[in-house]
Amino acid sequence: MASVSEMYDVTWEEMRDKLRKWREDNHRNSEQIVDVAEELINEHASKLGDDIWIIYEQVMIAALDCSRDDLAWTCLQELKKQFPGSQRVKRLGGMRLEALEKYEEAGKQYDSILQEDPTNTAARKRKISILKAQGKNTDAIRELNEYLELFVGDQEAWHELSDLYINEHDYGKAAFCLEELMMTNPHNHLYCEQYAEVKYTQGGLENLELSRKYFAQALKLNNRNMRALFGLYMSASHIAASPKVNAAVKKANVKYAAWAANQINRAYQLAGRGTKENKCSVKAVEEMLESMQITMS
Amino acid sequence: MSIKLTTQAYCKMLLHAAKYPHCAVNGLLVAEKQKEKKKDNTYTPILCVDCIPLFHGTLALAPMLEVALTLIDTWCKENKYVIAGYYQANERIKDFRPNQVAEKVAARIAENFSEAAMIIVDNTRFTMGCYEPILAIYDHHENKWKCRDCNVDCFEDWCEAQKITLALLEGRSYESLIDFDNHLDDLRNDWTNPEINKSVLHLC
């Protein structure tokens, strides 16, 4: 099989930089990471310097994702040799046990980390992940709530909690978590947009109006967010079609929906330029928007 | 009433699940619109000719699902298709039961198409070798979903489906599969997956 560097015509430095980018963006493209990092470690270990340790960590986690226990074990041994007694490495050992579904042993590993250092957030979060892996969503939610009372600034945890609530269809509580995230990240259009989606799903006129406002806010923060644009269109359309609104509100929402429909059409026209196949989507979108207008009026 | 799957439909379903092994995924199945009901009592199973991968990750939010259903419904009408089924692969390996999302969406589809089927992928039996069909097919009877045994009869051509799915999984074709989520990230991404359709045809 051709090597990564041959297939993509890249140098080892480019491979190393790509790994760094994936690390920083927290990408979960595990198969690619394993391919690139395995080659990098096998062929260019000496050139990597101290970078190699963080790459070992990154590829170990990716290897667990791909069921490559051989690779994960090798990385773990290298890290153990270099950093004996490290809690960070101990946590990786725990993750390997989780991947092997040895949840009790993994739990004990994390407990021993927490005995030495009760503020170790990584170990606490892994324990919650074990509950999630076992399908114990209610327990995971409870533990995560307790965790967040102590570590109230942990954004990753708030987002995880909102996902857990959404999966349990507890949209009210999911909205609360997203509100926390929006407060600390007022410029993040993705949180705004997800909050709007949760409110829309909750349903009811008040929530629909809130959802429309937050879709609009997300669009203001990023005018290329298609979900926000579609969301604005859908929420405005539903409000306009509702029998409970007065004529003025209806008129305003018809206007918002019409504006959104126009923007959606433009976005599709722009995307479809040059490709014959995309023209079918453009047409489908136009027809969909037209057919929805009929139900609105 | 039961549905049958073509190779293309089965392939793309599995490719979608393979692309996001750590997420729940879902999507729709489409069948050719029947021209008219047969006058005699011969029974023809519905043939699902294609699959449209929808979302990965969080499946329980409404707005984008509504957009997708409406848009794909419009696309179906233009192409003389009808939305005939819904598939879902859950996030956890051992979780193979249909949940609230699956039942709700499938029920909505059944409102427009009475013989709609709900398909849940059995993750525990999902291997590269594709030795056996790994789906659980549910039919709607009296407001309940009943599981039907899925065997090679549920496929237009099981041998072909098995061979081609194996080839595409090994070739990592799932890396280029586009679902509706990918389309919303970049409108140029085509959720009809013409390239993968071509590969399937090519391998037939």
From TrEMBL, chain B:
Subunit structure: Component of the ER membrane protein complex (EMC). EMC8 and EMC9 are mutually exclusive subunits of the EMC complex.
MPN domain boundaries: 3-144
UniProt cross-references to InterPro entries, sorted A to Z: EMC8/9, MPN
Protein's UniProt name: MPN domain-containing protein
GO cellular component: EMC complex
Organism annotation: Esox lucius
Recorded coiled-coil stretches: none
Gene: EMC8
Record-stated family: Belongs to the EMC8/EMC9 family.
